[in-house]
Write a structure and sequence with these properties.
The structure is a homodimer of 347-residue chains. The first copy, chain A, is α/β, with parallel strands linked by helices and 347 residues long. The first copy, chain A, has helices spanning 31-39, 46-67, 71-84, 90-104, 109-137, 161-171, 187-198, 211-216, 242-252, 283-286, and strands at 4-6, 11-14, 25-28, 143-146, 176-180, 203-206, 222-225, 229-231, 236-239, 256-259, 265-266, 287-288, 291-292, 299-300, 305-308, 315-317, 322-323. The longest helix of chain A is centred in the middle third of the chain and has 29 residues, at 109-137.
Amino acid sequence: VRTLDWSACGIRLIDQNRLPDEELFLMVREVDELVAHIQSLAVRGAMALGVAGALGMALAAVRAKERGEDLDAALDEAATKLSNSRPTAVNLSIGVENVARARREGAGVAELVEVALAMRDADIEANLAIGLRGAELLRGARRILTHCNAGALAGVEHGTALSVVMALQREQPLDVVYVCETRPLLQGVRLTAWELARGGVEHRVIVDAAAAGLMLGGEVDAVVVGADRIAANGDVANKVGSLSHALAAHRAGIPFVVAAPEDTIDAGTASGADIPIEYRSESEVLTFEGREIGPPKSKALNPAFDVTPADLVTAVVTQRRTILPATDQVAPALPHPDTTGVCPSTP
Amino acid sequence: VRTLDWSACGIRLIDQNRLPDEELFLMVREVDELVAHIQSLAVRGAMALGVAGALGMALAAVRAKERGEDLDAALDEAATKLSNSRPTAVNLSIGVENVARARREGAGVAELVEVALAMRDADIEANLAIGLRGAELLRGARRILTHCNAGALAGVEHGTALSVVMALQREQPLDVVYVCETRPLLQGVRLTAWELARGGVEHRVIVDAAAAGLMLGGEVDAVVVGADRIAANGDVANKVGSLSHALAAHRAGIPFVVAAPEDTIDAGTASGADIPIEYRSESEVLTFEGREIGPPKSKALNPAFDVTPADLVTAVVTQRRTILPATDQVAPALPHPDTTGVCPSTP
């Protein structure tokens, strides 16, 4: 499923908040609408956010031209709004910056749209490559554990962690994929389970807290997750809970593999300590489908991400290489040779 | 709050499935009703289950006498039903066995009730002692993380982990208690948060997966949890998720303390590998407040407990001693000097 695309009217995206109950595609005509969808997580996932940032800038350019507004002022405003909509996700800013840079280099509206579309196409290609590379690394693993949704729904197509899962599945049907439900927003049970069910992959949903017991009990061959940002030293910021799985995988002696495109590697971030962690609304923890689950006076703390130290990361698999953070240099990311659309955040 | 008690009519217990929305006390008149309440987790927690087992046997004895039925046959039947209602919880069987043994030694119905009431009283006293001992061990810790509910609601009064928290709080108000919500049944946010709010303790509810990030981020001084069973080598079975917290505490260099009565130590169980793990219904994972959260074809796996290896346990605090599993002998448990109601599972 192509979760995010460009059309004559604007940006077309699947509303992930409606899944798995219904497949609803939204047509986004204004940047403010896109910002709202990014914040509500209707569109989410590191790579999709990168492409969304670029397409959002293209949208701003097209609308400014139609309305006869100043192009540079419109792009500046859109860049600020889009970059601030999710502070932890580095890809969002990269997508925005790719289009902004093209404009600084003199591109017109049509060329800005081309830059955004090139990012979309590079994303699809990169995700396929990540899957093949990850499957090569994990050949023989038949029981995989994953967290959150690093699937097609987190990108434009294919995904990262689930691209690895699907590549393994094509070689030989997997015994089981353990899908961590991923509280508080349940992307695992809502999105990943939906993708695996759609793809005919044998899977079991578990609560996040059950992962460690399964790993130490010998029930898991490998953990594969995505990443929201990878620091220059190999520390990985990903959905809250990833760190627990890395600790358990380390203790169990099984690989903890991070599947992510090169541009998730942020050479400008020295280590995990420099990655800002987004704290989201308390109500995501304290309510479910609008109903309060705790006592009325209790408060919550809701970090959306955590940081896995590099020494717990067996490998980072990108579309261009397999990095072993314990021994390999992680940053800078390798430039993508085929397109100007994807490039390292620090040239 | 006294969560479980004996009255002229039968067993009185607070329905924990109604909390935190309402305080409803149930009057249980038959063993089958008690079994149903144990299985639905209306009554839960290692210690409460021990007392519930004993009171259930007392109830069977009283009813058999009233109906002119054979006392031993009624007790045998009740023992089987009660012991099988939650296979992982060792205390349940201990409570049952205490009354059964008294009968084998010739006790009449009134004496059997006395044995059960002595267990209740010993439980209350033990929990207070556990709290004081734990607070002594953790003096100076102001930011505590706990999982599930090892509070008054898990015992008859006071609890274990929360007895430690309340003892620390009496010395000096705590900065914060991080309450893991404890999926799938949310005992943390429903019960522990309710107890802490009631006790005026500053607290924040977090998703289970957020605990590791807080610990490695330096936000937690100590982890305190209860236990469902402690093997002779110090391995600890507790609510699923405890293992993750122990791994994170170990990495963060903070204490992981298990607060539990002596009779949770099962000398008959050599190590964690010998502890049967209860797998509960898939629907607990796949539904939330009665609503399906995943795709209709997806299945779940729902282990209720996990096992924390002894080397990750900083200390086990009981009513009688502070055990450091790395260096101290854990089993056999110390006999309780004050009562015949609480005793080690293997004499």
